[in-house]
Amino acid sequence: MKEFLVANPIVFETTLAMVAMVAGAFGALLGLGGGFILIPFLTLVLGVHIHYAIGASLVSVIATSSGAAASYVRDRMTNVRVAILLEIGTTLGAITGATLASRIEPSGLFLLFSILLVWSAFAMLRRREGAGREMKVPPDALADRLRLHSEYPGGTQKEMIPYRVARAKLGIVLMYFAGCVSALLGIGSGILKVPAMDQAMRIPIKVSSATSNFMIGVTTATSAGIYFMRGDIIPGLAGPIAFGVLIGSQVGSRWLGKWSGQTIRFIFVIILILVAVEMGIKGVQSYF
Amino acid sequence: MSSPTSKPDSTPRPEDLRLERWLSILLRGGVNLSLLLVLTGFVLNYVKGQSWMGATDMSELMSGSLTLHSEPPRNLAEFVYGFGGLQSLNFVQGAILVLILLPAFRVAFLLGSFLRQRDWIFSMLAFLVLTFMSFGTILRIVH
Predict the structure, then answer these.
(1) Chain B partners within 8 Å of A228 (Cβ)
(2) How many helices (H) and strands (E) in chain A?
(3) What's residue B3's pLDDT?
(4) Which residue has the higher pLDDT, A92 or A152?
(5) What's the ipTM?
(6) Cβ atoms < 10 Å from Cβ of A254
(7) Shortest alpha-carbon distance between residue B103 and chain A (Å)
(8) Hey, where are the domains in chain A?
(9) Which of residues 126-145 of A touch B (CB under 8 A)?
(10) Is the pLDDT of residue B9 over 50?
Protein backbone atom coordinates (compact mmCIF):
# COMPACT_ATOMS: atom_id res chain seq x y z
CA MET A 1 0.00 0.00 0.00
CA LYS A 2 2.82 2.39 0.90
CA GLU A 3 4.42 2.09 -2.56
CA PHE A 4 1.09 2.89 -4.20
CA LEU A 5 0.66 5.98 -2.01
CA VAL A 6 4.20 7.19 -2.72
CA ALA A 7 3.53 6.87 -6.45
CA ASN A 8 0.23 8.75 -6.15
CA PRO A 9 0.62 11.81 -3.91
CA ILE A 10 -2.93 12.99 -4.59
CA VAL A 11 -4.31 9.64 -3.43
CA PHE A 12 -2.09 9.91 -0.33
CA GLU A 13 -3.41 13.40 0.49
CA THR A 14 -7.02 12.39 -0.19
CA THR A 15 -6.66 9.22 1.92
CA LEU A 16 -5.28 11.26 4.82
CA ALA A 17 -8.18 13.71 4.57
CA MET A 18 -10.76 10.88 4.40
CA VAL A 19 -9.35 9.02 7.41
CA ALA A 20 -9.17 12.33 9.29
CA MET A 21 -12.84 12.97 8.45
CA VAL A 22 -13.83 9.65 10.02
CA ALA A 23 -11.59 10.39 13.03
CA GLY A 24 -13.12 13.86 13.41
CA ALA A 25 -16.67 12.52 13.20
CA PHE A 26 -16.14 9.79 15.79
CA GLY A 27 -14.09 12.16 17.95
CA ALA A 28 -16.96 14.69 18.01
CA LEU A 29 -19.53 12.03 18.82
CA LEU A 30 -17.53 10.41 21.60
CA GLY A 31 -16.10 13.59 23.08
CA LEU A 32 -12.55 12.57 22.21
CA GLY A 33 -10.26 14.44 19.85
CA GLY A 34 -9.37 12.94 16.49
CA GLY A 35 -5.85 12.28 17.81
CA PHE A 36 -6.92 9.05 19.45
CA ILE A 37 -7.64 7.57 16.01
CA LEU A 38 -5.14 9.50 13.90
CA ILE A 39 -1.94 8.85 15.82
CA PRO A 40 -2.39 5.04 15.82
CA PHE A 41 -3.34 5.18 12.10
CA LEU A 42 -0.31 7.26 11.14
CA THR A 43 2.18 5.30 13.23
CA LEU A 44 0.86 1.73 13.03
CA VAL A 45 -0.65 1.70 9.51
CA LEU A 46 1.48 4.23 7.59
CA GLY A 47 4.65 3.81 9.64
CA VAL A 48 5.07 7.55 10.26
CA HIS A 49 7.45 8.52 13.11
CA ILE A 50 5.42 9.32 16.23
CA HIS A 51 6.87 12.87 16.46
CA TYR A 52 5.45 13.80 13.04
CA ALA A 53 2.15 12.13 13.90
CA ILE A 54 1.97 14.16 17.12
CA GLY A 55 2.78 17.40 15.25
CA ALA A 56 0.02 16.76 12.68
CA SER A 57 -2.43 15.74 15.38
CA LEU A 58 -1.78 18.94 17.36
CA VAL A 59 -2.78 21.07 14.34
CA SER A 60 -5.98 19.08 13.89
CA VAL A 61 -6.79 19.46 17.60
CA ILE A 62 -6.51 23.26 17.29
CA ALA A 63 -8.85 23.16 14.29
CA THR A 64 -11.59 21.17 16.04
CA SER A 65 -11.22 23.04 19.30
CA SER A 66 -11.54 26.44 17.60
CA GLY A 67 -14.52 25.30 15.51
CA ALA A 68 -16.41 23.91 18.49
CA ALA A 69 -15.37 26.76 20.81
CA ALA A 70 -17.02 29.28 18.47
CA SER A 71 -20.42 27.63 19.05
CA TYR A 72 -19.91 27.12 22.79
CA VAL A 73 -18.88 30.77 23.33
CA ARG A 74 -21.89 31.96 21.30
CA ASP A 75 -24.19 29.74 23.38
CA ARG A 76 -22.67 31.18 26.59
CA MET A 77 -21.51 27.79 27.86
CA THR A 78 -17.84 28.80 28.16
CA ASN A 79 -16.48 30.51 31.26
CA VAL A 80 -13.83 32.69 29.60
CA ARG A 81 -12.42 33.97 32.93
CA VAL A 82 -11.90 30.45 34.27
CA ALA A 83 -10.31 29.51 30.93
CA ILE A 84 -7.76 32.36 31.05
CA LEU A 85 -6.81 31.55 34.65
CA LEU A 86 -6.35 27.83 33.98
CA GLU A 87 -4.46 28.47 30.74
CA ILE A 88 -1.56 29.67 32.91
CA GLY A 89 -1.23 26.04 34.01
CA THR A 90 -1.93 24.40 30.64
CA THR A 91 0.50 26.57 28.64
CA LEU A 92 3.32 26.03 31.15
CA GLY A 93 2.57 22.31 31.00
CA ALA A 94 2.56 22.43 27.19
CA ILE A 95 6.02 24.03 27.14
CA THR A 96 7.31 21.31 29.49
CA GLY A 97 5.71 18.52 27.45
CA ALA A 98 6.86 19.79 24.04
CA THR A 99 10.41 20.22 25.35
CA LEU A 100 10.41 16.75 26.92
CA ALA A 101 8.91 15.08 23.81
CA SER A 102 12.06 15.53 21.76
CA ARG A 103 14.11 13.91 24.55
CA ILE A 104 11.84 10.90 25.15
CA GLU A 105 12.35 7.75 23.07
CA PRO A 106 9.42 6.90 20.73
CA SER A 107 8.92 3.65 22.66
CA GLY A 108 8.20 5.69 25.80
CA LEU A 109 5.65 7.77 23.91
CA PHE A 110 3.99 4.61 22.53
CA LEU A 111 3.67 3.20 26.05
CA LEU A 112 2.32 6.46 27.48
CA PHE A 113 -0.19 6.70 24.62
CA SER A 114 -1.23 3.12 25.22
CA ILE A 115 -1.88 3.80 28.91
CA LEU A 116 -3.94 6.88 28.06
CA LEU A 117 -5.99 4.90 25.54
CA VAL A 118 -6.91 2.34 28.21
CA TRP A 119 -7.77 5.16 30.63
CA SER A 120 -9.98 6.78 27.95
CA ALA A 121 -11.71 3.47 27.24
CA PHE A 122 -12.65 3.03 30.90
CA ALA A 123 -13.61 6.70 31.24
CA MET A 124 -15.99 6.25 28.29
CA LEU A 125 -17.57 3.19 29.87
CA ARG A 126 -18.42 4.97 33.09
CA ARG A 127 -19.23 8.33 31.55
CA ARG A 128 -22.24 9.94 33.13
CA GLU A 129 -24.06 13.12 32.31
CA GLY A 130 -23.85 14.52 35.82
CA ALA A 131 -27.47 15.66 35.77
CA GLY A 132 -29.08 15.92 39.15
CA ARG A 133 -25.77 15.42 40.95
CA GLU A 134 -25.69 17.73 43.94
CA MET A 135 -22.26 18.59 45.25
CA LYS A 136 -21.22 20.97 47.99
CA VAL A 137 -19.16 23.82 46.63
CA PRO A 138 -16.54 24.87 49.19
CA PRO A 139 -15.87 28.61 49.43
CA ASP A 140 -12.84 29.86 47.51
CA ALA A 141 -11.48 33.34 48.18
CA LEU A 142 -9.48 33.36 44.93
CA ALA A 143 -12.52 32.45 42.84
CA ASP A 144 -14.51 35.21 44.60
CA ARG A 145 -11.77 37.78 44.07
CA LEU A 146 -11.33 36.89 40.38
CA ARG A 147 -15.11 36.84 39.81
CA LEU A 148 -14.99 33.31 38.37
CA HIS A 149 -18.58 32.42 39.31
CA SER A 150 -21.05 32.67 36.47
CA GLU A 151 -24.20 31.18 34.98
CA TYR A 152 -25.07 28.94 32.02
CA PRO A 153 -28.13 28.04 30.00
CA GLY A 154 -29.53 24.74 31.26
CA GLY A 155 -32.73 22.90 32.08
CA THR A 156 -35.66 22.32 29.78
CA GLN A 157 -36.35 26.03 29.24
CA LYS A 158 -32.66 26.88 28.77
CA GLU A 159 -32.97 29.24 31.71
CA MET A 160 -29.77 30.68 33.18
CA ILE A 161 -28.51 28.58 36.09
CA PRO A 162 -25.96 30.20 38.43
CA TYR A 163 -22.95 28.24 39.67
CA ARG A 164 -19.92 28.84 41.84
CA VAL A 165 -16.32 27.84 41.21
CA ALA A 166 -14.10 26.22 43.87
CA ARG A 167 -10.43 25.24 44.35
CA ALA A 168 -9.01 27.53 41.67
CA LYS A 169 -5.39 26.95 42.77
CA LEU A 170 -5.75 23.16 42.60
CA GLY A 171 -7.28 23.60 39.14
CA ILE A 172 -4.16 25.42 37.88
CA VAL A 173 -1.89 22.62 39.17
CA LEU A 174 -4.03 19.89 37.57
CA MET A 175 -4.07 21.83 34.29
CA TYR A 176 -0.28 21.93 34.28
CA PHE A 177 -0.22 18.12 34.08
CA ALA A 178 -3.00 18.06 31.47
CA GLY A 179 -1.02 20.53 29.31
CA CYS A 180 2.11 18.42 29.67
CA VAL A 181 0.33 15.22 28.53
CA SER A 182 -1.29 17.12 25.65
CA ALA A 183 2.05 18.28 24.28
CA LEU A 184 3.75 14.91 24.81
CA LEU A 185 1.09 12.92 22.96
CA GLY A 186 -0.50 15.38 20.53
CA ILE A 187 -3.97 15.18 22.03
CA GLY A 188 -6.31 17.83 23.43
CA SER A 189 -6.37 16.02 26.81
CA GLY A 190 -9.98 17.02 27.44
CA ILE A 191 -10.19 13.58 29.03
CA LEU A 192 -8.09 15.03 31.88
CA LYS A 193 -9.26 18.64 31.84
CA VAL A 194 -13.00 18.00 32.10
CA PRO A 195 -12.80 15.78 35.24
CA ALA A 196 -10.39 18.30 36.83
CA MET A 197 -12.94 21.10 36.41
CA ASP A 198 -16.00 18.98 37.08
CA GLN A 199 -14.72 17.05 40.11
CA ALA A 200 -12.09 19.30 41.68
CA MET A 201 -13.43 22.77 40.85
CA ARG A 202 -17.13 21.79 41.02
CA ILE A 203 -17.93 23.45 37.70
CA PRO A 204 -21.07 22.02 36.00
CA ILE A 205 -20.21 19.33 33.47
CA LYS A 206 -21.56 21.24 30.45
CA VAL A 207 -19.54 24.35 31.35
CA SER A 208 -16.48 22.16 32.08
CA SER A 209 -16.70 20.56 28.62
CA ALA A 210 -17.15 23.90 26.84
CA THR A 211 -14.40 25.64 28.83
CA SER A 212 -12.06 22.67 28.31
CA ASN A 213 -12.68 22.91 24.57
CA PHE A 214 -11.89 26.63 24.62
CA MET A 215 -8.63 25.97 26.51
CA ILE A 216 -7.54 23.06 24.32
CA GLY A 217 -6.85 25.42 21.39
CA VAL A 218 -4.53 27.58 23.50
CA THR A 219 -2.73 24.60 25.04
CA THR A 220 -2.17 22.82 21.73
CA ALA A 221 -1.19 26.04 19.92
CA THR A 222 1.57 26.54 22.53
CA SER A 223 3.04 23.09 21.88
CA ALA A 224 2.28 23.20 18.13
CA GLY A 225 4.26 26.47 17.96
CA ILE A 226 7.28 24.67 19.42
CA TYR A 227 6.85 21.66 17.07
CA PHE A 228 6.39 24.02 14.10
CA MET A 229 9.50 26.04 14.85
CA ARG A 230 11.45 22.79 15.34
CA GLY A 231 10.37 21.66 11.84
CA ASP A 232 8.35 18.69 13.15
CA ILE A 233 5.07 19.74 11.53
CA ILE A 234 5.06 18.42 7.96
CA PRO A 235 2.58 20.53 5.93
CA GLY A 236 1.74 17.67 3.56
CA LEU A 237 0.70 15.58 6.54
CA ALA A 238 -0.83 18.20 8.85
CA GLY A 239 -2.79 20.10 6.15
CA PRO A 240 -5.03 17.30 4.85
CA ILE A 241 -5.48 15.95 8.37
CA ALA A 242 -6.60 19.30 9.82
CA PHE A 243 -8.97 19.73 6.87
CA GLY A 244 -10.46 16.25 7.23
CA VAL A 245 -10.85 16.40 11.00
CA LEU A 246 -12.56 19.77 10.79
CA ILE A 247 -15.05 18.69 8.14
CA GLY A 248 -15.60 15.35 9.89
CA SER A 249 -16.29 16.91 13.29
CA GLN A 250 -18.76 19.44 11.84
CA VAL A 251 -20.65 17.29 9.36
CA GLY A 252 -20.16 13.77 10.74
CA SER A 253 -21.57 14.40 14.19
CA ARG A 254 -24.96 15.26 12.63
CA TRP A 255 -25.12 11.93 10.79
CA LEU A 256 -23.74 9.89 13.63
CA GLY A 257 -26.09 11.58 16.09
CA LYS A 258 -28.85 9.36 14.68
CA TRP A 259 -27.02 6.22 15.74
CA SER A 260 -27.28 4.77 19.20
CA GLY A 261 -24.60 6.47 21.29
CA GLN A 262 -24.30 3.42 23.55
CA THR A 263 -23.60 1.04 20.66
CA ILE A 264 -20.95 3.30 19.14
CA ARG A 265 -19.38 3.81 22.55
CA PHE A 266 -19.18 0.06 23.17
CA ILE A 267 -17.64 -0.65 19.75
CA PHE A 268 -15.21 2.20 20.19
CA VAL A 269 -14.12 1.03 23.64
CA ILE A 270 -13.17 -2.34 22.12
CA ILE A 271 -11.26 -0.59 19.31
CA LEU A 272 -9.47 1.66 21.81
CA ILE A 273 -8.34 -1.34 23.87
CA LEU A 274 -7.14 -3.23 20.78
CA VAL A 275 -5.19 -0.18 19.59
CA ALA A 276 -3.81 0.30 23.12
CA VAL A 277 -2.51 -3.29 23.10
CA GLU A 278 -0.97 -2.79 19.63
CA MET A 279 0.73 0.46 20.66
CA GLY A 280 1.81 -1.05 23.97
CA ILE A 281 3.45 -3.96 22.11
CA LYS A 282 5.22 -1.51 19.77
CA GLY A 283 6.45 0.41 22.80
CA VAL A 284 7.66 -2.67 24.66
CA GLN A 285 9.27 -4.32 21.58
CA SER A 286 12.17 -1.88 21.52
CA TYR A 287 13.21 -2.94 25.03
CA PHE A 288 13.78 -6.56 23.92
CA MET B 1 -24.67 20.05 38.47
CA SER B 2 -22.99 22.15 41.12
CA SER B 3 -25.39 23.84 43.44
CA PRO B 4 -24.65 27.28 44.79
CA THR B 5 -24.09 27.25 48.54
CA SER B 6 -24.28 31.00 48.96
CA LYS B 7 -25.52 33.92 46.95
CA PRO B 8 -23.26 33.98 43.90
CA ASP B 9 -21.93 37.02 42.10
CA SER B 10 -22.60 35.32 38.80
CA THR B 11 -24.33 37.76 36.50
CA PRO B 12 -22.08 38.49 33.52
CA ARG B 13 -21.59 42.17 32.65
CA PRO B 14 -22.80 43.50 29.27
CA GLU B 15 -19.16 43.92 28.19
CA ASP B 16 -18.58 40.19 28.90
CA LEU B 17 -21.48 39.31 26.60
CA ARG B 18 -20.15 41.59 23.83
CA LEU B 19 -16.72 40.01 24.25
CA GLU B 20 -18.17 36.50 23.91
CA ARG B 21 -20.00 37.47 20.71
CA TRP B 22 -16.85 38.89 19.10
CA LEU B 23 -14.79 35.91 20.22
CA SER B 24 -17.22 33.56 18.53
CA ILE B 25 -16.97 35.53 15.26
CA LEU B 26 -13.16 35.57 15.43
CA LEU B 27 -12.94 31.81 15.99
CA ARG B 28 -15.40 30.92 13.25
CA GLY B 29 -13.71 33.30 10.77
CA GLY B 30 -10.23 31.92 11.47
CA VAL B 31 -11.32 28.30 11.10
CA ASN B 32 -13.15 29.05 7.84
CA LEU B 33 -10.10 30.88 6.47
CA SER B 34 -7.81 27.92 7.18
CA LEU B 35 -10.34 25.54 5.62
CA LEU B 36 -10.46 27.71 2.51
CA LEU B 37 -6.64 27.77 2.29
CA VAL B 38 -6.26 23.97 2.49
CA LEU B 39 -9.12 23.52 0.04
CA THR B 40 -7.39 25.89 -2.44
CA GLY B 41 -4.20 23.86 -1.97
CA PHE B 42 -6.11 20.65 -2.71
CA VAL B 43 -7.64 22.18 -5.86
CA LEU B 44 -4.21 23.39 -7.05
CA ASN B 45 -2.78 19.90 -6.50
CA TYR B 46 -5.54 18.37 -8.62
CA VAL B 47 -5.65 21.05 -11.32
CA LYS B 48 -1.96 21.93 -11.65
CA GLY B 49 -0.55 18.53 -10.72
CA GLN B 50 1.37 19.90 -7.73
CA SER B 51 1.90 17.98 -4.49
CA TRP B 52 2.79 18.90 -0.93
CA MET B 53 5.53 16.28 -0.72
CA GLY B 54 7.92 14.70 -3.20
CA ALA B 55 8.16 10.92 -3.62
CA THR B 56 11.47 10.80 -1.72
CA ASP B 57 10.05 12.72 1.22
CA MET B 58 6.95 10.52 1.26
CA SER B 59 9.03 7.33 1.30
CA GLU B 60 11.12 8.76 4.09
CA LEU B 61 8.02 9.82 6.01
CA MET B 62 6.48 6.35 5.82
CA SER B 63 9.73 4.58 6.69
CA GLY B 64 9.42 5.74 10.27
CA SER B 65 12.58 7.82 10.22
CA LEU B 66 12.92 11.23 11.84
CA THR B 67 15.03 12.79 9.11
CA LEU B 68 12.47 15.08 7.51
CA HIS B 69 12.55 18.70 8.54
CA SER B 70 9.96 21.23 7.49
CA GLU B 71 11.56 24.64 7.64
CA PRO B 72 9.05 27.29 8.80
CA PRO B 73 8.71 30.24 6.37
CA ARG B 74 11.57 32.62 7.10
CA ASN B 75 11.04 35.30 4.48
CA LEU B 76 7.59 36.86 4.66
CA ALA B 77 7.85 38.52 1.22
CA GLU B 78 8.82 35.22 -0.38
CA PHE B 79 6.03 33.44 1.46
CA VAL B 80 3.40 35.94 0.30
CA TYR B 81 4.82 35.83 -3.25
CA GLY B 82 4.16 32.06 -3.23
CA PHE B 83 0.43 32.74 -2.91
CA GLY B 84 0.51 34.91 -6.04
CA GLY B 85 2.38 32.15 -7.83
CA LEU B 86 -0.36 29.72 -6.79
CA GLN B 87 2.10 27.41 -5.00
CA SER B 88 -0.10 24.89 -3.16
CA LEU B 89 2.52 24.36 -0.43
CA ASN B 90 2.21 28.02 0.57
CA PHE B 91 -1.54 27.65 0.93
CA VAL B 92 -1.28 24.65 3.24
CA GLN B 93 1.50 26.30 5.26
CA GLY B 94 -0.68 29.41 5.50
CA ALA B 95 -3.59 27.30 6.79
CA ILE B 96 -1.38 25.73 9.47
CA LEU B 97 -0.05 29.15 10.49
CA VAL B 98 -3.59 30.56 10.74
CA LEU B 99 -4.64 27.63 12.93
CA ILE B 100 -1.61 27.95 15.23
CA LEU B 101 -2.00 31.73 15.47
CA LEU B 102 -5.78 31.69 15.96
CA PRO B 103 -5.67 30.79 19.69
CA ALA B 104 -2.98 33.45 20.18
CA PHE B 105 -5.22 36.04 18.48
CA ARG B 106 -8.03 34.84 20.72
CA VAL B 107 -5.93 35.52 23.85
CA ALA B 108 -4.66 38.85 22.42
CA PHE B 109 -8.29 39.82 21.79
CA LEU B 110 -9.16 38.93 25.38
CA LEU B 111 -6.17 40.94 26.61
CA GLY B 112 -7.39 44.02 24.71
CA SER B 113 -10.86 43.57 26.10
CA PHE B 114 -9.66 43.18 29.69
CA LEU B 115 -7.49 46.28 29.30
CA ARG B 116 -10.49 48.26 28.04
CA GLN B 117 -12.47 47.07 31.05
CA ARG B 118 -9.53 48.11 33.32
CA ASP B 119 -9.52 44.57 34.67
CA TRP B 120 -5.81 44.64 35.53
CA ILE B 121 -5.55 41.16 37.08
CA PHE B 122 -7.02 39.42 34.03
CA SER B 123 -5.04 41.69 31.70
CA MET B 124 -1.90 40.42 33.41
CA LEU B 125 -3.07 36.79 33.25
CA ALA B 126 -3.87 37.08 29.52
CA PHE B 127 -0.48 38.72 28.90
CA LEU B 128 1.28 35.88 30.74
CA VAL B 129 -0.60 33.26 28.67
CA LEU B 130 0.34 35.10 25.48
CA THR B 131 3.99 35.16 26.56
CA PHE B 132 3.98 31.42 27.29
CA MET B 133 2.32 30.77 23.92
CA SER B 134 5.10 32.56 22.07
CA PHE B 135 7.74 30.38 23.75
CA GLY B 136 8.39 28.44 20.53
CA THR B 137 9.10 31.63 18.59
CA ILE B 138 11.26 33.01 21.40
CA LEU B 139 13.30 29.78 21.41
CA ARG B 140 13.77 30.04 17.64
CA ILE B 141 14.99 33.65 17.89
CA VAL B 142 17.38 32.79 20.73
CA HIS B 143 18.86 29.86 18.77
Answers:
(1) 72, 96, 100, 136
(2) 13, 2
(3) 43
(4) A92
(5) 0.83
(6) 11
(7) 5
(8) 2-285
(9) 130-137, 139, 144
(10) no
